[in-house]
Amino acid sequence: MGQAFPENFLWGGAVAANQIEGAYLEDGKQLNVTDVVVGILNEPDLKWNPKRQKWEPALKADKVYLSHEAIDFYHRFNEDLALMEGMGFQAFRTSISWARIFPNGDETEPNEAGLRYYDELFAQMRRRGMEPVITLSHYEMPLHLLTEYGGWLNPKMIDFWMKYVDVVFRRYHNAVNYWMTFNEVNNLFRIPFVAGGVLDIHPAHPEHVNQDLTERQLYQAAHHLFVANAKTVQLGHQIDPQAKIGCMLSLSSLATYPYTCDPQDILGVMEHQHKQMLFLDVMVRGEYPGYVQRSWRENGSRPDMTQDELELIRSFPVDYIAFSYYRSTVYHAGAEIRTDTGGSAGLDNPYLKQTSPAPWRWPVDPQGLRYVCNFLTDHYHKPLFIVENGIGLDEQPDETGAIHDDFRVEYIREHLIQLREAIADGCDVMGYLYWGPIDIVSAGTGEMRKRYGFVHVDRQNDGSGTLKRTRKDSYEWFRKVIATQGEDLSDK
Length: 492
Description:
Blueprint: E1 10-14, H1 17-20, E2 46-49, E3 54-57, H2 73-86, E4 91-95, H3 98-101, H4 112-127, E5 131-137, H5 143-149, H6 156-172, E6 178-182, H7 215-239, E7 244-250, E8 256-258, H8 263-285, H9 290-299, H10 307-315, E9 320-324, E10 329-331, E11 338-340, E12 343-345, H11 366-380, E13 384-388, H12 406-425, E14 429-435, E15 455-457, E16 469-471, H13 473-483
Parallel strand pairs: 1-4, 1-14, 4-5, 5-6, 6-7, 7-9, 8-10, 9-13, 13-14
Antiparallel strand pairs: 2-3, 11-12, 15-16
């Protein structure tokens, strides 16, 4: 037993439309960016048409795109939300699939069938006592906007985006109090197609998608996204002054530790953190920091921007910082440091007690979450919302049909202990939304084998399975945590 979390703390879970809904071409929806990839770290299945000088979808008949059906949440959301209600969820994060509302992205009128689906989904959440926490773009940009316009490289995207946002805000402002703009948009520089919505539509070498993107192009896309983010905050508060509109960033990489006290290691960590802080500095503080302006000068990568755009960004920062945290890493000058959907991976940390089981073996660092919360509080003085924290495990029911996921319970328990410490440190934390409360298609690997849920879904990597839902041991444990407001974090 221990000190409880704040009374208004929101407990729940988080998913994304592209990983859970399925029905990928149903009720008027057209292809989005994640419909042509199997795992967002892989190249999309596009082909260059030299006659038309255009990229075109090239889905492969012998490839399993699990996200096309996912776990069929589109047709089963009542059943799944009942399971979330059974744990006592007070909030549930999902996203609106932009391609359900504007299938190609550049239509003049929205798709009413898509709007009705989210009418029903959000109403059902509220009937079951859950606040909808809604991401406006979670790797679900209409593919047509990339192949036709180049995505966020093109300033026309801002108008397409604002038309979509205007429709959604006006339709759902009575149902949704918590919004986020772009999911993990700071991944733009390493996953430009999916995370950044960027495609070079005049490639010099079309053998590989986005092979020719320059640093300046990526900064230009980022600037257009920053302008769209500010306009979204401005419009959202005009339509609903009580709405809370946040950014959502992948911030595990802030927990990057120097390997030694060598100044090269210390400065290397600082520069690595700057890659994440750029998006915070612009979306939260409303200004481009000096370190990126130095990079622009030295590398000739300054994007085009106007004073009006800079004033807009300055005037409309986000209300809160939503973020994902999964693991920490260690930086050593000269050593490779790579990134994936869980954050950065450098040298092994000999001081951490354990990693997750094979095959992924992520380092488990609950204190890193406390560190990130304090880092954000010290630098940005905004409320924080943990909207992704979880562990993917390779697990199947035993001979009795049960799933004993003790490692998941321990992982969450240790992170919640450290989150409680961060709150005691003075961090203003709005809530904890576990990723993902039901097994879904993994974003990074595009498979079902990597299971995060409190609820098992019978679907396999080859696409087989009944889609039957089964509660794991962690389901009852997390229900106890919520029922005691986090006071009882014992592992039984």
